């Protein structure tokens, strides 16, 4: 099965600072998802990456999938308290019928 | 649009009791999943169903059973609850094909005492 490792496990930043979260896979990624979760709530889809070298942005959040398709990074520019939550990367080996996730990164943004 | 609906949202069980968590999706998705989330452990896959009539074990299936009742509904049953099953449970669904987004329910917070 595909294993995903996220780093760091937790992150505390001051509002306005940039930050990066990494997700490393034990196998080639055919699709990499980023989700955000607020405490006690469900997961909100952020973006999906499929192609090596692909980069997508949504507001101040940018995600990249490296050329070898075994690592992805999520970068937040000028962080805000609204960015706080748990960020999870997820991947499916082929058609998504066995979607698995990393352990998550807990992000705290202090005003 | 309802998306993925889970019931109940909260439940307290005594050790040894049984219960079924219900999940329904209205997006005509083929794949459905049950996960549990524990502090520091991320989301761990319990069971999934790639299509109506099929179910497969995930990473942590012991102590659980599932039923894919029809294309819309996928239930998770705890036959004899244990304190180790205290967790937050999430149901999700996704469409057919390569790398389609998964949609999640709001979760069920289960406490076994």
Could you describe the 3D structure shown?
The complex is a heterodimer of chains A (111) and B (113). By secondary structure, chain A is mainly beta. Chain A is built from no helices and eleven strands. Chain A has strands spanning 4-7, 10-14, 19-25, 32-37, 43-49, 55-58, 61-65, 71-76, 85-91, 100-101, 105-110. In chain A, strands 2, 4, 5, 9, 10 and 11 form a six-stranded mixed sheet that branches. In chain A, strands 1-3-8-7-6 form a five-stranded antiparallel sheet, with no helix packed on it. In chain A, a hairpin with a 5-residue loop joins strand 7 and strand 8. The model of chain A has no long low-confidence stretch (mean pLDDT 88). By secondary structure, chain B is an all-beta fold. The N and C termini of chain B lie far apart (36 Å). The chains are: A mainly beta (111), B mainly beta (113). The A-B interface holds A 1, 6, 9, 30-31, 33, 35, 40-43, 45, 48, 50, 88, 90, 92, 94-104 and B 31, 33, 35, 40-45, 48, 50, 56, 58-59, 88, 90, 92, 94, 96-107, 109.
Topology:
The complex is a heterodimer of chains A (111) and B (113).
Chain A: E1 4-7, E2 10-14, E3 19-25, E4 32-37, E5 43-49, E6 55-58, E7 61-65, E8 71-76, E9 85-91, E10 100-101, E11 105-110
Parallel strand pairs in A: 2-11
Antiparallel strand pairs in A: 1-3, 3-8, 4-5, 4-9, 6-7, 7-8, 9-10, 9-11
Chain B: E1 4-7, E2 10-13, E3 19-25, E4 31-38, E5 42-49, E6 56-57, E7 65-68, E8 74-78, E9 87-94, E10 102-104, E11 108-112
Parallel strand pairs in B: 2-11
Antiparallel strand pairs in B: 1-3, 3-8, 4-5, 4-9, 5-6, 7-8, 9-10, 9-11
